[in-house]
Amino acid sequence: MPTIMRWAEYNMSKIEIKTMPFDKTSIDCMNGYYIDYPVVYFLNNDTTVYIGETVAVRNRMRDHLNNRERKSLKKMPLIIHEKFNRSATYNIETKLIHYFLADERYKLQNKSQQLIV
Asked: Which segments in the chain show pLDDT lower than 70?
């Protein structure tokens, strides 16, 4: 029974979604444990989305700001959980990409997925 309780406790803990503007000011102001911790993120506007995962969110967002394709993206939702690990974030990123491909509401900027479409 203790194993089930630990599983339930782990799965019931809070997933946090932080949404902020995708700009230099927001990136420079990021703080919290998630700065150097596995996170899943979106960069999006009303028609286009990029989905990713990283263990260094501030550095990765700065890289994206310098990418011409990402210039039109305006929002930056981060999916954060204190018990995420790299394997979990990769799995979530992959599933989200597939969900977005199936939904067809947004154009995906993820290069690896453009071959699937």
From this structure: 1-12, 112-117
Exposed, middle or buried by CB within 10 Å (0-12, 13-18, 19+), for 66?
A: exposed
Tokens of 86: 């790299």
Nearest CA among 57, 13, 12 for reference residue 32: 57
3-class SS of residue 51:
strand
The pLDDT value recorded for residue 38 is 96
Q: Which residue has the tokens 């979990």?
A: 88
Cα gap 101→1, rounded to integer Å: 40
Q: What one-letter code names the amino acid at 76?
A: M
pLDDT at 10: 55
Instruction: Read off the tokens for 72.
Output: 């039109």
Amino acid found at 115: L
Q: Tell me the helices (H) and strands (E) count for the chain, helix number first.
A: 5, 5
**8 SS3 class:** helix
Alpha-carbon distance 73 to 59, whole Å? Answer: 17
